[in-house]
Amino acid sequence: MLNSNKVKLAIAPIGWTNDDMPDLGAENSFEQCISEMALAGFKGCEIGNKYPKDPVVLKHYLDVRGLQVCNAWFSSLLTSLPYQDTIRAFIQHRDKLNFLGAKVIGASEQGNSIQGKLDIPILKNKPVYTEEQWQLVSKGFNEMGALAREKGMFFTIHHHMGTGIQTSEEIDRIMEMTDPDLVFLLFDSGHLSFAGIDPVPVLKKYVHRVKHVHLKDMRKSIYETVKSQNMSFLDAVRAGVFTVPGDGDVDFKPIFEILSQADYEGWVVVEAEQDPAKANPFEYAVKARKYIREASGL
């Protein structure tokens, strides 16, 4: 069972409004989102596009609801823009998160990602890094890791569908090429499952380098449709390939056991993007909270 003195439970706003497809949840306001997060029993959240940009204003809204920002997505563009552009953007992002009290920064290399391209099947044609790109990405991640540590924060790699860090072999390579004292892993059960990878061995291998956890379940029947119809990532999300833990086909108990045995300390975040018109965000947040309590003791 997870130690509630060391592990905190958060939820991402993507269940209320999808930043990549703003029509999904366009009707849901920022205040509704964070109020329902708190009402469902979560103590933290990540940041969405509807959140106030001013960190002082945002902190007030969250403080009165007993919520804490635990992380926010950072798009690294090392493979598409000049190197220093990403470093400068990262420093701004780091400083905002540091003000908000977050200890983790989750980054994904998006320079040549296909995750947002509606005309490309997500299970085909993913980017594959050249040797030069591997060197560039690892160099940038190491530098961003050092910049995070300057503020007492942890830089984590978010392996993600449609990117050059998606498979278990690619995760292995980037972990080997980066400094274990500076660069950590954001373990995402949903993206491993979607990639056709059992998340359990990956977590076992890297649990002592994991500083942040994303939990999302997957509906295998819809996944099979995604494969057979060559759907894009965003179309797969719209179709309902993901759901909250306990509502799909992934067994989370071994994941919780590994985290418990390793004495994991940090945040566990429900991040399950769906169409809010089909999956009421508050109801699914409550469902996730109940399942995680029963399965992990958290």
From TrEMBL:
<dbReference type="GO" id="GO:0050114">
    <property type="term" value="F:myo-inosose-2 dehydratase activity"/>
</dbReference>
<feature type="domain" description="Xylose isomerase-like TIM barrel">
    <location>
        <begin position="37"/>
        <end position="294"/>
    </location>
</feature>
<keyword id="KW-0456">Lyase</keyword>
<dbReference type="InterPro" id="IPR050312">
    <property type="entry name" value="IolE/XylAMocC-like"/>
</dbReference>
<dbReference type="InterPro" id="IPR030823">
    <property type="entry name" value="IolE/MocC"/>
</dbReference>
<keyword id="KW-0170">Cobalt</keyword>
<protein>
    <submittedName>
        <fullName>2-keto-myo-inositol dehydratase</fullName>
    </submittedName>
</protein>
<dbReference type="InterPro" id="IPR013022">
    <property type="entry name" value="Xyl_isomerase-like_TIM-brl"/>
</dbReference>
<dbReference type="GO" id="GO:0019310">
    <property type="term" value="P:inositol catabolic process"/>
</dbReference>
<dbReference type="GO" id="GO:0030145">
    <property type="term" value="F:manganese ion binding"/>
</dbReference>
<keyword id="KW-0464">Manganese</keyword>
<dbReference type="InterPro" id="IPR023952">
    <property type="entry name" value="IolE"/>
</dbReference>
<dbReference type="InterPro" id="IPR036237">
    <property type="entry name" value="Xyl_isomerase-like_sf"/>
</dbReference>
<dbReference type="Pfam" id="PF01261">
    <property type="entry name" value="AP_endonuc_2"/>
</dbReference>
